[in-house]
Write a structure and sequence with these properties.
The structure holds 2 protein chains of 2 kinds. By secondary structure, chain A is mainly α. Chain A has 30 helices and 8 strands. Chain A folds into 3 domains: 107 residues; 244 residues, MetI-like fold, CATH 1.10.3720.10; 221 residues, MetI-like fold (Orthogonal Bundle). In chain A, the strands form 4 sheets. In chain A, strands 1-2 form a two-stranded antiparallel ribbon. Chain B is α+β, with helices and mostly antiparallel strands. Chain B folds into 2 domains: 220 residues, P-loop containing nucleotide triphosphate hydrolases (Rossmann fold); 110 residues, Beta Barrel (OB fold (Dihydrolipoamide Acetyltransferase, E2P)). Chain B has a 6-stranded mixed β-sheet, with helices on both faces. Chain B has a 5-stranded antiparallel β-sheet with strand order 13-12-11-14-20. In chain B, strands 15-19-16-17-18 form a 5-stranded antiparallel β-sheet, with no helix packed on it. In chain B, strand 16 and strand 17 form a beta hairpin. Chain B is elongated and about 75 Å long. Chain B starts with 7 loop residues before the first strand and ends with a strand. Classes of the chains: A mainly alpha, B alpha+beta. Bound molecules: adenosine-5'-diphosphate and magnesium ion (MG). The site of magnesium ion has 2 residues of chain B, from helix 1.
C-alpha cells in the first residue's frame, strides 16, 4: 500500500494568505490601469497624478494592503483595506456632485479591498477563522448596505432637508403632521381622510377578507380531497405569472363607466353608469383577487400540517363535527390566519399597480409617494415623508410577524401526520366555503378571460367586441425590413429589455440569496443574528420605498446609477434576494449538516464544500429562486416604475403608461402576452425538473409590493 | 501506514455551550496504533470530545496534540484526522467511487491517483463492483463500509468512529465490529471509537475511557474496567452487577464484608475498615450445595435464556441476580438456593 500512499499533506495553515495577495494585486492593477469613473477615462493613478488628490490615500492603502498581505501581517492588511474603502466612500460623498461617479475601476478596487479586509479578519480569528465565510458575510453585508440601507437611509434623510438640501428639522413636523396624511374626516365627518388612514383602512380590510377567503378555499381544497387539486395548482401558479395590475385592468373593463357589466346593468336593470369602482371598492376588490391566493397557500399549508390524528382523537372523545372544528382545528389555524392577515396587510400597503389603475380620488401612500416625486410637484422631501410613513407601517407588521408568530408562520407542507382521515367540516361551514370559493373562483376566471379575450377585440373597455388584431400588430408587429427581421411593434423594446433584465438578475438573486442562506444556517460567527436580520428586513421594505430611495440616492456621484439598465438589475436582485434566502434556508434544513462536516474532515476547504456538496444538493432551491426572481422581475411594477426610462423601459411600466393614457386594449394585449410567456417558461421549467414543486414552494415565500 | 501513525494528546480540554459544560477538564492520551473507546451513557460528552479531536467544535479551553503538532486552533480540514459519522454522511449525489475519491481530490491529488487509492480501499473493504452505485442504492452495511473506505483513503493519523454500529441491525453489529477491529489491527491504525454499548466497547478496545457527566470516570483496559471498577456507577455500567451496601472489616491483609448479618471473605484491595459496597457479577455467583454456601436464599424469579438461566434470589443481602450457566432445568419458585463466590471475584468499593 505504501506504493500508492499520498504524499504527506501540508496541513498547517500557511503564514501568508495567497488569495489575499492576489486580491490586493488585483486592486493595485485596477487602480493603475482600469478607468476609475463611470464615464470611463483615466485610472485612479492617472487621476491622482492629474491633481485629484483624494485618490492618493486610496493608492497608499492599496499598496499597504498588498505589502502587509505579502508579509503575512493580517492585522495591518485589515486596517489598510478598511481604511481604503472607508476613505474612498467618505471622500466620494464629501465631493458629491463635484467628484466622479464610481465606475468599473472603482468597483474592482473596492471589491478587492473588501475581500482583503474580510479574509484578513478571518485570519485574525473572526468568523470562526473561516476565510470563505468571512468573505461571503462581509461582501453580502456590504452589498445590502449599499443597495438597501444606504438608499433607504438617504431617502429618509431627505425628509428633513429642504429644497436646497439644508437640514430643517422643523420641516418634518410641517410635512408629517398634516391633515392630508392623518386626517380622519371620512370616519363620520363626511370629508376626506388622509392618505395614511386610507392606506391603513384598505390594508386592514384586504388583510382580513383575504385571510377569510383564503381559509374558505383552503378548507375546501384540503378537506375536499383530490377533486380540487387542480384548483390548488392553479392558485399557486396564477399569482406568480400575473402582473398585479392585470386584475385591476380586468375590473375596469368589467365595472368601469363603460365597462361590460356596467353596460348590462344599465341596459337591463336601469342602474345608471357611474364611477363607483374607482376608489376604495375597486382597489379592495382588485387586491383581494390578487392577494388571496397567498393567504390560501399559507392556510393550506397550515391545514395540511394539522395532524388528522388530533381530530380523530377529538372525534373518538365524542365531539361533534362542529365541536371538533371549533376546539381543535380552528385554534391550530389561528397563527396561520394571523400570518395571512399580516401578509395581506403588507401586500396591500405596498401595492402600487392596483391603486394606480383604480384608486381614483381615493389616495393611498404608494401612489401619492410616486406622484410626489414623479409628478409635476417633484418634491423629494415630501415623497420621503410619505415613504417613511409607509415603511413604518410595513416594518410594524413585519415586527409583529416576527415577534408573535416567529417560525410558526412558515408551516411547511410536510408528510408528517398524513395518516388518518381529516375530519369532515360542519355542514354549514362547508356550504359557506363552497359558495364563497365558487364565487371567487368564477370571478377570477372571468377576469382572466377578459384579459385573454381583450387583446383580440377592438375595444373591450368600451364594449366594442369586434374581432381585431390591430393591438397585437401595434405592439408586437414584425416586418421584413432591409436588414432582415424588424421588430417594429411599440412593445418590443420594453419586452426585450424586461427579459434581459430578468435573465441577468435571476441568477444573481439566486446566488446572493442562497449564499446568504448558507452562511446563516451553517456557520456560527459573531454578528450572525444581525446578519440574518439584515437579510430578512429588506422583505418588509415596500417597492415604492425602494424606488424613491434609489432615485434619491443614486442620481448623484459617487454612486450615480439612475437612467441605466444596471439600476434595474440591482433593484430586482436586492428586492428578490430574501426569496432566495428563504428558499435556501428551507432547503438547507433538509441537507444534513454532517455532510459539510464529513467534507471538512476529508480536507475539503469551505469553498470546495460549498461547490461540491452544498450547491449540487441545493439545485431544487436554486431553480425555485431562479424561476421566482425571473417571473417576479417580469411582473413587478412598484420599484422599477421610478427607475425605468424611455431607453430602458420595462414591460410592466410600459403597460401602466398605456393604462394611464387610456389605451386599454394595447395594455390588455400586452398583459396577455406576458402571462402566456411566463406560463410557458414555468411549464417548460416544470417539465425539465419534474413534478410540480415550483408553485407550492414559492408562494409561501413572498416579496411585498409588485 | 505506520508513517502516519501518531498519537493523540488531549490535555485539560473543556467545552462549554453557554451554561452547559459538555466536556469538563478532560485529559487522556491515545498511543499510536491503539484503539481507544470513549464509553458512557447518552449525553455524557463522548460525541463532543470526538468532534473536538476532529476540529468540528472549537475547544473552550485546553490543548489537543496530534502526533507532534498542536492542532487546537486548526480547522477540521487542516487536521490529519478522518471521521466515520454515525449517519455515515455519504454524499448522496455522488457515486461510491466519487465519495471515496473526494478526500484525495481535496488534497489536490490528480484524478488517476485518487482513483487508484480509492480502488485499493474499496477492494480492501470488499466493495469491488459497487463503485458506480449511489449511496441510496446500498444496504446499511455497505454504506457503512463505504464510509470507512472514504475515511481510510487519506490514511489519516487518527481515525474517529462515532457510534458506527448504531444504524445496523443486531446480527450485523457483531460482525462489523469484528471487521473494524481486524482492520485497525492489520493496518495499525490509531482509532478513537465512541459507543454507549459497554459490550461493544469491551469487544473492540485496547483501552476504554468511561465518561460520566462530561468527565472521565475511569480509564483502563477492558479487563481492568470489568474486574476492578472504581465506583458504583462503573460497576453497574459495565456489565451487570449486584451492589450490596455493608461494612468492611480489614486487618493484616484479610478482609471480611458484612451485611444483613452475613459475612464473607473478600479481596481487600488495600481498603481500610468502614462502610463499603460490594460489587458482585451475577455469573460469579455460583449455585452450590447447602453445606458449601456463603449465602442462602430462595428463588424469587427465573428466566430461561438458553445459554444460561437467570435467577433473582432473595437473600439476607437483598435480591441478587444470579446467572447459572451450568444448569439445564429451571428451579421452581420459592425453592431454597445456596450461593457462593470467590473472594477474588468480588470488588469492594468505598462508600
Ligand atoms: N450544540 C450544542 N449546544 C448545546 N449543548 C450541546 C450541544 N451539543 C451537545 N450539547 C450538550 O452537551 C452534552 C454532551 O453531548 P454529546 O457529546 O452529544 O453526548 P454523547 O455523545 O455522549 O451522547 C449534552 O448534555 C448535550 O445536551
Ligand atoms: Mg453521541
Amino acid at each position: 500500500m505504501n506504493s500508492t500512499a499520498l504524499a504527506p499533506a501540508v496541513l498547517a495553515p500557511p503564514l501568508r494568505d495567497r488569495p489575499n495577495m492576489v486580491a490586493a494585486s488585483i486592486a493595485l492593477a485596477a487602480s493603475l490601469i482600469v478607468p476609475w469613473a463611470a464615464d470611463g477615462g483615466a485610472s485612479a493613478l492617472a487621476r491622482a497624478l492629474a491633481g485629484h488628490w483624494t485618490l492618493w490615500p486610496l493608492m497608499g492603502a492599496v499598496l499597504a494592503a498588498l505589502l502587509s498581505a505579502s508579509s503575512g501581517r493580517d492585522g495591518a492588511t485589515a486596517i489598510a483595506s478598511a481604511f481604503g474603502v472607508a476613505w474612498t466612500f467618505g471622500a466620494g460623498f464629501v465631493e458629491g456632485v463635484t467628484g466622479p461617479a464610481f465606475g468599473i475601476g472603482a468597483a474592482i478596487v473596492l471589491t478587492a479591498l473588501t475581500v482583503c479586509f474580510a479574509r484578513a479578519l478571518a485570519r485574525q480569528g473572526y468568523f470562526g477563522g473561516d476565510t470563505t465565510v468571512a468573505t461571503l458575510v462581509v461582501i453580502i453585508a456590504a452589498l445590502l448596505t449599499i443597495f438597501i440601507f444606504f438608499p433607504v437611509g438617504r431617502a429618509l434623510l431627505s425628509a428633513v432637508q429642504d429644497a436646497q438640501g439644508r437640514f430643517a428639522l422643523s420641516l418634518v413636523t410641517a410635512r408629517l403632521f398634516t391633515a392630508d396624511i392623518w386626517g380622519v374626516g371620512c370616519l363620520g365627518a363626511g370629508t376626506r381622510c388622509g392618505v395614511a388612514i386610507n392606506s391603513a383602512l384598505l390594508a386592514i380590510i384586504v388583510g382580513m377578507v383575504s385571510a377569510l377567503l383564503g381559509l374558505a378555499l383552503a378548507l375546501l381544497v384540503q378537506r375536499g380531497g383530490r377533486r380540487y387539486s387542480g384548483v390548488l395548482k392553479l392558485m399557486s401558479l396564477l399569482p406568480i405569472v400575473t402582473p398585479t395590475f392585470v386584475i385591476a385592468l380586468a375590473i375596469v373593463v368589467l365595472f368601469g363607466r363603460t365597462g361590460l357589466i356596467t353596460g348590462w346593468l344599465d341596459h337591463w336593470i336601469g342602474i345608471p353608469r357611474s364611477r363607483w369602482i374607482y376608489g376604495l371598492p375597486g382597489v379592495a376588490l382588485a387586491q383581494l383577487l390578487s392577494f388571496s391566493p397567498i393567504a390560501f397557500m399559507i392556510l393550506y399549508g397550515a391545514l395540511t400540517a394539522v395532524s388528522p390524528t388530533l381530530e380523530e382523537a377529538a372525534q373518538t372523545l365524542r365531539a361533534s363535527r362542529a365541536r371538533v372544528f371549533r376546539t381543535v382545528t380552528w385554534p391550530l389555524l389561528r397563527p396561520a390566519l394571523a400570518n395571512a392577515f399580516l401578509l395581506g396587510f403588507v401586500e396591500s400597503l405596498a401595492d402600487f399597480a392596483n391603486p394606480i389603475v383604480l384608486s381614483g380620488n381615493f389616495e393611498v401612500l404608494s401612489i401619492k409617494t410616486f406622484f410626489a416625486i414623479a409628478g409635476a410637484q417633484h418634491d423629494p422631501g415630501r415623497a420621503a415623508v410619505l415613504a417613511s410613513v409607509l415603511l413604518a407601517f410595513t416594518l410594524a407588521a413585519f415586527w409583529l410577524q416576527q415577534r408573535w408568530l416567529g417560525r410558526l408562520s412558515y408551516v411547511t407542507v410536510s408528510g408528517k401526520g398524513d395518516s388518518g382521515i381529516p375530519a369532515r367540516l360542519p355542514r354549514g361551514l362547508w356550504l359557506t366555503c363552497f359558495f364563497t370559493a365558487l364565487i371567487w373562483i368564477s370571478f377570477t376566471f372571468i377576469c382572466y378571460a377578459v384579459i385573454l379575450v381583450g387583446g383580440f377585440v377592438k375595444d373591450i373597455g368600451r364594449g366594442d367586441m369586434t374581432v381585431s388584431f390591430s393591438h397585437f400588430a401595434a405592439g408586437f408587429g414584425v416586418e421584413w425590413g432591409s436588414r432582415g427581421l424588424f421588430f417594429g411593434g411599440s412593445a418590443w423594446d420594453s419586452f426585450f429589455t424586461t427579459i434581459l433584465v430578468a435573465a441577468i438578475s435571476a441568477p444573481l438573486t439566486a446566488l446572493i440569496g442562497l449564499l446568504a442562506a448558507y452562511v446563516i444556517t451553517r456557520h456560527r460567527f459573531a454578528g450572525r443574528r444581525t446578519f440574518e436580520f439584515l437579510t430578512m428586513v429588506s422583505f418588509a421594505i415596500p417597492g415604492t420605498v425602494i424606488g424613491v430611495s434609489y432615485i434619491v440616492a443614486f442620481n448623484v456621484p459617487p454612486l450615480e446609477l439612475t437612467g441605466g439598465m444596471a439600476i434595474l438589475v440591482l433593484c430586482f436582485v436586492f428586492r428578490n434576494m430574501p426569496v432566495g434566502v428563504r428558499a435556501g434556508v428551507a432547503a438547507l434544513a433538509q441537507i444534513d449538516k454532517t455532510l459539510d462536516e464529513a467534507s471538512a474532515t476529508l480536507r475539503a476547504s469551505t469553498l470546495r464544500t460549498l461547490r461540491q456538496i452544498i450547491l449540487p444538493l441545493l439545485r431544487p432551491a436554486i431553480l425555485v429562486t431562479l424561476v421566482f426572481s425571473f417571473t417576479h422581475a417580469m411582473t413587478a411594477v412598484s420599484a422599477v416604475i421610478f427607475l425605468a426610462t424611455a431607453k430602458y423601459n420595462l414591460a410592466t411600466v410600459y403597460i401602466v403608461g398605456r393604462v394611464e393614457a387610456g389605451e386599454y386594449p394595447l395594455a390588455i394585449a400586452y398583459s396577455s402576452v406576458l402571462i402566456l410567456f411566463m406560463a410557458v417558461v414555468l411549464l417548460l421549467v416544470q417539465k425539465a425538473v419534474g413534478e410540480a414543486r415550483l408553485g407550492r414552494r414559492t408562494t409561501n415565500l413572498l416579496v411585498t409590493g409588485h | 501506514m505506520a508513517k502516519n501513525a501518531g498519537g493523540v494528546v488531549f490535555e485539560r480540554v473543556t467545552k462549554r455551550y453557554g451554561e452547559v459544560t459538555a466536556v469538563d477538564d478532560v485529559s487522556f492520551r491515545v498511543a499510536p496504533s491503539e484503539l481507544v473507546t470513549l464509553l458512557g451513557p447518552s449525553g455524557c460528552g463522548k460525541t463532543t470530545t470526538l468532534r473536538m479531536v476532529a476540529g468540528l467544535e472549537p475547544v473552550s479551553s485546553g490543548r489537543i496534540v496530534l502526533g507532534d503538532n498542536d492542532v487546537t486552533r486548526r480547522a477540521a480540514n487542516e487536521r490529519d484526522v478522518s471521521m466515520v459519522f454515525q449517519s455515515y454522511a455519504l454524499f448522496p449525489h455522488m457515486t461510491v467511487l466519487e465519495n471515496v475519491c473526494y478526500g484525495p481530490l481535496s488534497t489536490r491529488a490528480d484524478k488517476p491517483k485518487a482513483r487508484e487509492l480509492a480502488h485499493a480501499k474499496l477492494s480492501m473493504l470488499g466493495l469491488t463492483g459497487l463503485e458506480h452505485r449511489l449511496p441510496s442504492e446500498l444496504s446499511g452495511g455497505q454504506q457503512q463500509r463505504v464510509a470507512v473506505a472514504r475515511s481510510l483513503v487519506l490514511e489519516p493519523a487518527v481515525l474517529l468512529f462515532d457510534e458506527p454500529l448504531s444504524n445496523l441491525d443486531a446480527k450485523l453489529r457483531r460482525r462489523v465490529r469484528q471487521e473494524i477491529r481486524e482492520l485497525q489491527q492489520s493496518l495499525s491504525l490509531t482509532v478513537i471509537y465512541v459507543t454507549h454499548d459497554q459490550e461493544e466497547a469491551l469487544a473492540v478496545s485496547d483501552h476504554i475511557i468511561v465518561m460520566e457527566g462530561g468527565r472521565i470516570a475511569q480509564q483502563g483496559t477492558p479487563n481492568e474496567l470489568y474486574e476492578s471498577p472504581a465506583t458504583r456507577f462503573l460497576a453497574d455500567f459495565i456489565g451487570d452487577a449486584n451492589l450490596i451496601d455493608g461494612d468492611l472489616v480489614a486487618d493484616s491483609g484479610r478482609a471480611i464484608f458484612c451485611a444483613g448479618g452475613v459475612s464473607a471473605p473478600v479481596r481487600a484491595d488495600g481498603l481500610g475498615s468502614g462502610p463499603a459496597t460490594l460489587a458482585l457479577r451475577p455469573h460469579r455467583l455460583r449455585i452450590v450445595d447447602a453445606d458449601e454456601a456463603t449465602l442462602s436464599g430462595v428463588c424469587k424469579r427465573a428466566a430461561y435464556l438458553g445459554s444460561r438461566i437467570e435467577y433473582v434470589v432473595t437473600t439476607a443481602w437483598g435480591d441478587l441476580l444470579v446467572f447459572d450457566g451450568e444448569g439445564r432445568t429451571m428451579r421452581p419458585r420459592d425453592e431454597p438456593i445456596s450461593l457462593k463466590f470467590d473472594a477474588q471475584a468480588a470488588v469492594v468499593l468505598r462508600r
